[in-house]
Amino acid sequence: MVDQYAQTPVGAEPSMLPSIRWDEPPEGPVLVLLDQTRLPVEETELVCTDVPALVQAIRTLAVRGAPLLGIAGAYGVALAALRGYDVEDAATQLSQARPTAVNLGYGVRRARDAYRSAVDQGAGLEQAAAAALAEAKLLHREDAEASTRMAEFGLSLLDELLPGGGHRILTHCNTGALVSGGEGTAFAVALSAHRAGRLRRLWVDETRPLLQGARLTAYEAARNGMAYTLLTDNAAGSLFAAGEVDAVLIGADRIAADGSTANKVGSYPLAVLARYHHVPFIVVAPTTTIDLDTPDGASIEVEQRPGHEVTEVTAPQVAAGAEAGSGMPVAPLGTQAYNPAFDVTPPELVTAIVTEKGALSPVTGAGIAELCVRSRQGNDELMG
Question: pTM for this one?
């Protein structure tokens, strides 16, 4: 069940509501989400009291972004456990909500495995549910810490590649605090450059068809006082040709074992443009986004979204998951639409992948495997 929890007109408060938070009102535990489908018009929170409501929020993009989906998935398992629902069924529903974002399944598995382990060790259902919640909260903290480290490593890499500062960065989709337990992935690097006085301009792709760049990245840039300019996706080529882009920074929803990267559709054309114009193309993502079970880019399952997202324009006040016919038509009735949510960039077009464990360049399968080893070692140190 989803309820509207709070509503704040943008501009009424200097700080943004958290993208996700756990709450325990007298009626029982809930997962509270900032409804990203309503930004930038208003900040509205959704209260999820069960897993079907959370699954719906994930599919309609009320909550989105690879790292945040992992956190949401873990909290979803805890929510099911604490409210007495079937944990295994909840884990299955959540894992299948969006197929491309590997973090979602990762977060679900961590909380589910914590629950299973507690049960196997003789804990009661209440104690097992508490273990799942503790794991979700741990993942939330870890992601915030990873965000800080990615910002540091990313800024160091930018300064190395582009000495002298004054960086003009092009970004695609949304990769800030709205997708993370911290300040984000690629956006966090740009924000770090801004705070250091080394960001000259943030170029923000609109990111069609759902306008995550226009609605969300511009919203975050404005709130942080960054110098930014919004452009339609197909205007990026003219910026490169004019020499106005120093680097491209994007996030990732899945990184395959060979370094192929799935990100919001429109990322691959930017990589091609960047290579032609000799501009660094940098992917910023936590190691939890790496999936060694996916061998290469061709093996990444790309989510196909409803066609009406392309053939209609929907106002931010109407959820992205609204039924066909709820928006303003921009194509003739019956028009077929091709609407992949993501595209895949091969590793040879990626200058570097920045993670919380450091930057990898050149991007190779061996390097990806080494990052994962370092990540596991770090987790073992935390656990032990």
Answer: 0.92
How distant is the alpha carbon of residue 103 from its chain centre?
Answer: 9
Contacts of 282 (CB under 8 A, 6+ apart): 154, 157, 158, 186, 189, 247, 248, 249, 250, 350, 351, 352, 353, 354
Give the number of other CB atoms < 10 A from CB of residue 298. 11
Residue 233 falls in the annotated catalytic set: no
The answer, yes or no, to whether residue 57 has pLDDT greater than 50, is yes
Instruction: Check residue 5 and give its pLDDT.
Output: 53
Strand segments (E) across the chain: 2-9, 20-23, 30-34, 42-48, 167-171, 199-205, 228-231, 247-250, 254-256, 261-264, 281-284, 290-291, 312-313, 328-329, 342-345, 352-355, 358-360
Q: pLDDT tens-digit profile of 340-359?
A: 999 999 999 999 999 999 99
Question: By three-state DSSP, how is residue 280 classified?
Answer: coil
Closest by CA position to 345, among listed 190, 172, 211, 155 = 172
Catalytic residue among 35, 143, 246, 253: 253
Q: For residue 316, what pLDDT is reported?
A: 66
> Rounded CA gap, 189 and 173, in Å?
15
Residue 189's nearest CA partner among 219, 146, 130 is: 146
Residue pLDDT, tens place only, 299-329: 999 999 999 999 998 766 554 455 666 789 9
Output phi, psi for 139, to 5 deg.
-60, -40
Distance in angstroms (rounded) separating the CA atoms of residues 91 and 261: 25
